[in-house]
Amino acid sequence: MRRLVYLVAVTLDGFIAGPEGGDPSGSEFLPVTPDLVEHLVASWPETLPGPARDAMGVTDPGTHFDTVVEGRASYEIGLDAGLLDAYPHLRHLVVSRSLAGRTDLPVEVVDGDPLERVRALKAEDGDKDVWLVGGGTLAHALLPEIDRLVLKVNPSVIGDGVRLFAGPFSPARFEHVGQVDLPGGVRVVTLDRVR
User: Fold this and answer.
1) With the CA atoms of 59, 60, 64 and 70 taken in that order, what torsion angle do they form, in degrees rounded to the nearest 10?
2) Which residues pair with residue 174 across a beta bridge?
3) What SS3 string covers the chain?
4) Which of 192, 190, 188 is closest to 175 using CA atoms?
5) In CATH, what class is 4-193?
């Protein structure tokens, strides 16, 4: 069965964006350093947005994911940059009630139960996983189906912002299965759910 993998950058205190939300990439607390880009190109090329892939000449389809799922706020980061589909190389789903009925978007809008849709995605045939790119509210809603965390842990503390999992108390256990320490200070930590 395919897995749902939440791969995201996070601060030491568990935030994926600042208090105002928006695109945290390249911020002071979640910088996109050359060593991180090199790691992503080598290990997770399908997680790079289409324009970045084009600019760097990345054509590798990747070996981990064929589908990306994200919430409306995360999707709007791409829209604000003029991208209707930041990941045209992947099947792209956006969980949003406010975008329901839009036929002009090149993504699948999921306006119903995201857990039900993700369970259906995981049950499909295939050897590639489903990538959850964000945000924190959707990650919390999908927590029962998250099989793996890949956290790009940055050596920064911000005190407030968009939480890695934004929602009520809901314990889940994961175990450490791997780690890559990058020269710039980011630790790419992989954890699998304990079932």
Assistant:
1) -10
2) 193
3) CCCEEEEEEECCCCEEECCCCCCCCCCCCCCCCHHHHHHHHHHCHHHCCHHHHHHHCCCCCCCCEEEEEEEHHHHHHHHHCCCCCCCCCCEEEEECCCCCCCCCCCCEEECCCHHHHHHHHHHCCCCCEEEEEECHHHHHHCHHHEEEEEEEECCCCCCCCEECCCCCCCCCCEEEEEEEECCCCCEEEEEEECC
4) 192
5) alpha beta
pTM > 0.85: yes or no: yes
What are the pLDDT digits (tens) for 97-118? 999 988 899 999 999 999 999 9
Question: Mind listing the pLDDT tens digit for each residue in 182-193?
Answer: 999 999 999 999
Q: Which amino acid is at 151?
A: L
Taking the domains of the chain in order of start, what are their residue ranges? 4-193
